[in-house]
Amino acid sequence: MRAVEWRPWGKGAGGRSPWARGRVLASLAVLTAGLMAFHSVVPNAVGRLGSLLETFLPWLGLAVPLLLVLALLRRSALALVALLLPVAVWGNLFGGLVPADEDSGASDITAVQHNVSDENSDPAGTARDLIEAAPDVIALEELTPSALPAYESALASDYPHHAVEGTVGLWSKYPLSDVRPVDIKPEGIPEGWNRGLRTTARTPQGDIAVYVAHLPSVRIRWNGLSSGWRDESAGLLGDAIAAEKLAKVILLGDLNSTVDDRGLDPVTGEMDSAGRNFAFSWPAAFPVARIDHVMTRSMAVTGIRTLPATGSDHLPVAAGIRFEP
Q1: How far apart are CA 289 and CA 30, in angstroms?
Q2: DSSP 8-state secondary structure symbol assigned to residue 300
Q3: Is 127 exposed, middle or buried (CB count within 10 Å of its CB: 0-12, 13-18, 19+)?
Q4: Using omega within 30 degrees of 0 as the cis cutoff, is the peptide bond preceding 283 cis?
């Protein structure tokens, strides 16, 4: 068998130095860094490519090890140096989130958010799993008429107060009042679609407005991201929160995108979303994005984490919430 000949990083057969080789790889490294750093300038006009990029923004970091291997094979010093740029940008954006922060401070309230799936075959078991996290409030989406009694029965003893509007609901240890639906239905969706509610939770620290929302799904198609209804619904939800008279607000919901996606700007502009903490919640089998959120106004999210899988295609997320002084 012929031995592999090791060639030092000098000039190659073509007489090119390591600083002249790998220009394409170096360009790809710079492009990767640029997409991460300036994702907001990627236009949404065609296929909502900007939103598609922002939804999976952390995963652009996977380009770095691939380019590293290619740069080593090419023996390109130029490409290796260029790779420092995407490494620095990724580290600045996401480096502080590895591993995901489970609790960055003491909390006054623990909240759980879970899209339980309308195909969940064990709603009672899912409810018991959520109780184990000992939250003070639990928000559920994709409640079906057939599964709702199972959730009500399983949660009743620990959470005597609950409110349901359409397919979303809130279970609480605190008394609830002023329950009403929140109209986040985009034009074109048939009547009877109700995925938003607002209620007031009476806590020992004062009244809090609690919103539960499930924005329309998005689809990835050959020509980009289909998110028109989701974006319109986010605008309606943002308007409702902006008009909220209570200072303290908690939003729990499946918003069908990440906090980096500009489509959620009407909501994230009103709320504190605990940054880009990974805690990927979807899909449950191999989570690649956190589309389930706990957000606050005039309060602080102290940490967010995923809980063990249930019978849903989403993972539950739990967050600590602290009252601001």
Answers
A1: 25
A2: E
A3: buried
A4: yes
| Confidence label for 99 from pLDDT (cuts 50, 70 and 90) | very low
CA 309, CA 281: separation in Å to the nearest integer? 9
pTM of the complete model: 0.85
Which tens digits make up the pLDDT trace of 138-181? 999 999 999 999 999 999 999 999 999 999 999 999 999 999 99
Residue 316: closest CA among 117, 103, 107: 117
Q: Which residues contact 305 (CB under 8 A, 6 or more apart)?
A: 100, 102, 103, 279, 317, 318, 319
Biggest distance spanned by C-alpha atoms of the chain: 80
Strands 168-172 and 176-181: unpaired
The residues, any chain, with a CB within 8 Å of residue 142's CB and separated by 6 or more, are 115, 116, 117, 118, 120, 167, 214, 254, 312
Residue of higher predicted confidence among 198 and 103: 198
* Helices (H), ranges, 59-199: 63-74, 77-94, 123-131, 148-155
3-state class (DSSP) for residue 178: strand
Say how far apart CA 79 and CA 258 lie, in whole Å.
31
* Helix residue spans in 95-122 (DSSP H): none
Contact between 250 and 301 under an 8 Å Cβ cutoff? The reply is: no
CA distances, 78 to each of 18, 37, 83 (Å): 7, 21, 9
| Amino acid symbol at 26 | A
Looking at residue 52, its amino acid is L
Answer whether 57's CB lies under 8 Å from 262's CB: no
Apex 181 CA angle, 230 and 261, nearest 5: 20
What is the full DSSP assignment across 116-127?
Answer: --TT-S-HHHHH
Q: What is the token pair recorded at 49?
A: 């490519």
4-6-7-13 Cα dihedral, nearest 10 degrees: 0
Residue with tokens 């075959």: 121
